[in-house]
Write a structure and sequence with these properties.
3 domains; about 15% strand; extended; 10 helices; 4-stranded antiparallel sheet; alpha+beta; OB fold (Dihydrolipoamide Acetyltransferase, E2P); single chain; Dihydrolipoamide Transferase
Length: about 290
């Protein structure tokens, strides 16, 4: 059976395709990446809706696509597709039954805290980073739940497959907000940038100027690096160590590594040393919270 490959809910904007991960004739499994998009926050894959073989792709690198856009056709495994459909239908029926039961049940204070209705939204809608919200890896139902609870998906770390945000993740985030811990941490972090802005410069007075637009990832990377620079002490430490024995050992592994198609560099030993040091002194592997 033919299955249309569409872009899942990625928000209202369209994002450019930066890489084609599969071609016509390729066999793919459900959730395998078909194309790679550059979103506001990071790169994200458009997954295959089922197991099967790609019949055709109607997009190419550079095209911009948005929620619901068709990017190709998949010849699916009919048996597996039927099973997936049945599973999805069962899940929808169970979810509907649970919601009906919840509405009929008497609302206790604990129930109200767990469900967190819109009237007790933990985070005002104005405080939600819409760009990060759209880029978050979450299903339409989870996005709707997050909107109802006032939760910013951009600040929630997903625990599901491929870091997908689940209902449990959203509720735990809301509970943290209600306890005041997340709010205090957010307020403290935002206050770290209290420095005067850099004055604007007219570079044209020095000669011809060429302007090139930054990608969304470039812009957000710059913002994140600025926050890190303002909030994290940067220290350069120089030490000397005799690595004669390590270097001899590294070179002795060269022939065996080449057979495996890999390279053994000094970085491997440095990472091992850092990991061992952090285990021995866990205080260095910690962060401060408000």
């Amino acid at each position: 059976m033919n299955i249309t490959i569409t872009v899942p809910d990625i928000g209202e904007d369209k994002f450019p395709i930066i890489e084609i991960l599969a071609a016509a004739g390729d066999s793919v499994a459900k959730e395998d990446g078909i194309v790679l998009l550059e979103s506001d926050k990071a790169s994200m894959e458009v997954p295959a809706p089922a197991d099967g073989v790609i019949e055709q792709l109607s997009v190419q690198v550079g095209d911009s696509v948005g929620t619901g856009d068709v990017i190709g056709v998949l010849i699916g495994d009919s048996a597996k597709a039927s099973a997936d459909s049945a599973e999805a239908a069962t899940s929808t029926a169970v979810t509907g039954a649970e919601k009906t039961t919840e509405k009929a049940a008497e609302k206790t204070p604990e129930t109200i805290a767990d469900t967190a209705p819109p009237t007790t939204s933990a985070v005002p809608a104005a405080n939600i980073d819409e760009a990060a919200f759209r880029a978050a890896h979450a299903s339409p139902s989870i996005r709707k739940l997050a909107r109802e609870l006032g939760a910013d998906l951009g600040k929630i770390k997903g625990s599901g497959r491929k870091n997908r945000i689940t209902e449990v993740d959203v509720k735990q985030y809301v509970k943290g907000i209600l306890s005041g811990s997340s709010a205090a941490h957010t307020a403290g972090f935002a206050a770290g940038a209290g420095i005067p802005a850099v004055p604007a410069q007219d570079f044209s007075k020095f000669g011809a100027v060429e302007e090139n637009p930054l990608s969304k990832i470039n812009k957000l990377t710059g913002e994140h690096m600025t926050r890190c620079w303002l909030n994290i002490p940067h220290v350069t430490q120089f030490d000397e160590a005799d690595i004669t024995d390590i270097e001899l050992f590294r070179k002795s592994l060269k022939a065996e590594a080449e057979k495996l198609g890999i390279r053994v560099t000094m970085l491997s030993f440095l990472m091992k040393a850092v990991a061992s040091g952090l285990k021995a002194f866990p205080r260095f592997n910690a962060s401060l919270s408000a």
